[in-house]
Here is the input.
Amino acid sequence: MAIVALIEPQSEGELALIKSLLDGNDIRYFVHNEHFGSLYPGLSLPFNRRVVMVDDSDFGRAGTLLGKLVVREESDQAG
Here is the structure.
């Protein structure tokens, strides 16, 4: 059982949506820096970024479920 990074939410609202979707589809997850990540406002520095992580066996299903969020993030970074 390996845990892999799935997505880095950009806000509290996005994190809540991701957690709700994963919970609703019985996908177990772990949020690295879940509470510490929102401790300090301002720039999102590497030490306080939140990362949603899932088991590698659930990665494909979770990726499909969150596909629209991931595509939006990639297009925001490109433009």
